[in-house]
Amino acid sequence: MGGVAKMPAGLSWLLLGVVLAFGVAASPAQASRRANHYDFFIKETKVTRLCHEKTILAVNGQFPGPTIYARAGDVVVVNVYNQGNKNITLHWHGVDQPRNPWFDGPEYITQCPIQPGANFTYRIIFSEEEGTVWWHAHSDFDRATVHGAIVVHPKRGSAYPYTKPHKEMPIILGEWWNVDVQQLLEETMRTGSDVNISDANTINGQPGDLFPCSKNGTFRMPVEHGKTYLLRIINAGLTNEMFFAVAGHRLTVVGTDGRYLKPFTVDHIMISPGQTMNALLVADRPTDGTGNSRYYMAARTFASNTQLSANNSTATAILEYTDAPPSAGPPDLPSLPAVNDIAAATAYTAQLRSLVTKDHPVDVPTHVDEHMLVTLAVNLLPCGANETCKGPISGTTRLAASLNNVSFVLPPVDVLDAYYYSIRGVYEPDFPNKPPFFFNFTDRLPLELSFTKRGTKVKVVEYGAVVEVVFQDTGILGAESHPMHLHGFSFYVVGRGFGNFDKNTDPATYNLVDPPYQNTVSVPKAGWAAIRFRAANPGAWFMHCHFDRHTVWGMDTVFIVKNGKTPDAQMMPRPTTMPKC
């Protein structure tokens, strides 16, 4: 992964050299933003965290990267110049990209990577998204530092379905490793071992002043008494679900994944990797000197599988009142749930419900054409010849992951091109609708029954078909929650529960009235989550766990949605500018 894959003989004519499709390229000396047009220069950048300097990949020298601003229905063009030392791609997470899979971004799924020294222009088509989505690298572990927010405002003449905030602020939760993340990936792929835990959680790229050498860099958000602020919270972490809170302030959650919610007020949120949450904060603390003028924002790991090592540190940022006298003491610290508090995470997630108004209706499918039960598992594979493995059975196994016991393998040619040109041998169109055998999925199995098989299997569906996917967690090598993300679609999360899904009784508990409309769902530990979507976006769309180690281990598949009969139900033509493998 990340290297230059060899194209099968006879196919090199399919992919041309990289050129720009959207006019004259901006030079590095020009501004990095024009109206609906951004220039992203990806290059190695030196940063210091935790008393340690290292080189990271970053966009325009920023970590996190620049924020993209758009309105619902806009088209945004991003010129990407790869001035780094490795292949890379970018993904526009939560943007459906109608009929436009070519610019979705995951490497070897919809495109070949942008090679060092090359450039590629993405065309991002916004449709119904409104709120907060985000962008990130979709190659190797690059998104650890290559990521940023996308703010999607209502169309001109439209308004928020709540009081307009005084100011808005992206709050990006992430993780920091002192080691190079590429070396981290290469080690786990070489040995089949688990990924070492991060050294710190971060808020807007900083661990906060509870960590050494971190006081000066701590993110600070100024506020004024009596004003309302919109926090656009994103979990960009590679491995951790997170609890987040602000001391002394409650949060009114109004949106998730670029869609509006019925407002509800909480002391803390739980947010999975890939998800976004929009929350209103009212700066209502006293400013007459009787109270503190500074309050910690704090983020801490939620780890559902306590058998795995986890980074239990607390990242902090500071909310500070500019119209209050300075406090002599430290900021107040919020109370966050314990690292393994499944009840707190479940109670929060249960409150997510779509807004449902005339301007923001729902369209929950009630008839299903394709029923799928998809098991999620961390598995084993036998150690290959001449390999030194460090899996659970030392020396003989490596860790893997699977959906329905298929551990996905990235092909040497991207799936979308193979589908578009009918190239044989790149993928198999027979991803199963159910696991190969049924058992008590939430029990832990003996190690010898934990093995999976590799394959590049995809699911092909007809245009317009209504698909229901029930994600079922398994106890193979330990049950845990999984943030499952689907490219190209938002979906209704119509149900969730613990234990084994029962197709005869559990559908009666579905919410078909106001389920949340998301693109990333947190499947509960030893439980299930049911989603529904209408396959009305032709193309090849990746579905995967947003824990990155599970992605590279194979907890993935691809939905290929066929073209419909009318021109507006068919994929746009393949751009001539696609990168070559």
From TrEMBL:
One of its GO terms (molecular function) is copper ion binding. Its EC number is 1.10.3.2. Keywords: Apoplast, Copper, Lignin degradation, Metal-binding, Oxidoreductase, Repeat, Secreted, Signal. It is found in: Secreted, Extracellular space, Apoplast. Residues 42-156, 168-323, 452-564 form the Plastocyanin-like domain. Its cofactor is Cu cation. SUPFAM superfamilies: Cupredoxins. It catalyses: 4 hydroquinone + O2 = 4 benzosemiquinone + 2 H2O. GO terms for cellular component: apoplast. Pfam families: Cu-oxidase, Cu-oxidase_2, Cu-oxidase_3. Residues 1-31 form the signal peptide. GO terms for biological process: lignin catabolic process. Gene3D superfamilies: Cupredoxins - blue copper proteins. Binds 4 Cu cations per monomer. Transmembrane segments: none annotated. Its main location: secreted. Belongs to the multicopper oxidase family. Lignin degradation and detoxification of lignin-derived products. This is Laccase. It comes from Panicum virgatum.
